[in-house]
Design a protein that fits this description.
The protein is of the alpha+beta class. It has two helices and nine strands, in the order E-E-E-H-E-E-E-H-E-E-E. This is trans-L-3-hydroxyproline dehydratase.
Length: about 190
């Protein structure tokens, strides 16, 4: 937590990095001269992407079980309201190749709750509500149990929200297919 990162075009900012199934950098949009609720999405995406690239260049991540998981997936810009409150806190998740999540992001909410718990801003059992700045959709999250993961202090988080099917697919395996069970590249 509280890592000073130099972001080209924005100067020094302070980020937290949290893990909730993947790693994200977190900071208030205000540090970048933006407002997560009123700035243009394109401006938020550009700034978040610059943060992601800067963190990747200036900080090495470690995962206690698999180095394959030790990469920064994206940056979540927030409204800076990290202390417990009954009022929703708003964020935008910019991940992968400048994609924007339509929701507050399940893995992002998990990581944000873990960071808030780590910093003593919320307690076990306190439910926070998270709002997507792009769609207004809501997720809730709460820390339910303190634990350890490798040598790291950790917390088990419950997240809930609403999701909808956007499509279905049917896969058929034919018995005569010699590759029906898959294959490996050497």
């Amino acid at each position: 937590s509280d890592l000073a990162i130099d972001v080209p075009g924005h100067g020094k900012v302070v980020v937290d990095i949290g893990y909730g199934g993947t790693f994200y950098a977190f900071l208030s949009a205000e540090q970048l001269g933006l407002d997560v609720c009123s700035s243009k999405t394109r401006d938020l995406v550009s700034a978040a992407s610059a943060v992601t690239e800067a963190v990747k260049k200036q900080f090495k991540l470690h995962h206690p079980e698999s180095e394959d998981l030790a990469f920064l997936y994206g940056t979540i810009l927030t409204d800076g309201k990290n202390a417990f409150s009954e009022e929703p806190t708003t964020n935008i998740c910019v991940f992968a190749d400048e994609q924007v999540d339509r929701s507050p992001t399940g893995s992002g909410v998990t990581a944000r709750i873990a960071l808030q718990y780590h910093k003593g801003l919320i307690q076990l059992g306190q439910t926070r509500t998270f709002r997507s700045s792009t769609t207004g959709s809501l997720f809730t999250g709460k820390a339910v149990k303190a634990t350890k993961f490798g040598n790291y202090n950790a917390v088990i988080v419950e997240v809930s929200g609403e999701a909808f099917y956007t499509g279905t697919a049917t896969f058929t395996v034919e018995e005569e297919d010699p590759l029906k069970h898959g294959f490996f590249f050497k």
